[in-house]
Amino acid sequence: MRCPDCGQEMDLADKSTFTGSEVRDYYCKPCKKSVVDHGGPALWQILSDAREEAESARAAEEKKTK
Ligand SMILES: [Zn+2]
Question: Ligand 1 centroid to 10 CA: how many Å?
């Protein structure tokens, strides 16, 4: 994994596996920037899960304020 900013090879900071897809956390020391690499075809699943979560959180928030 190369840094999108400076093109240098990044350090693998963390690696986790959930819902069958590997998620790698890379860190670029020169840029002090971390990039998450979602390997595998399950990215759409993660994105749609995150969107659903955000929407249900917002709905709960609306109920609270009203
Ligand atoms: Zn960099």
Answer: 7
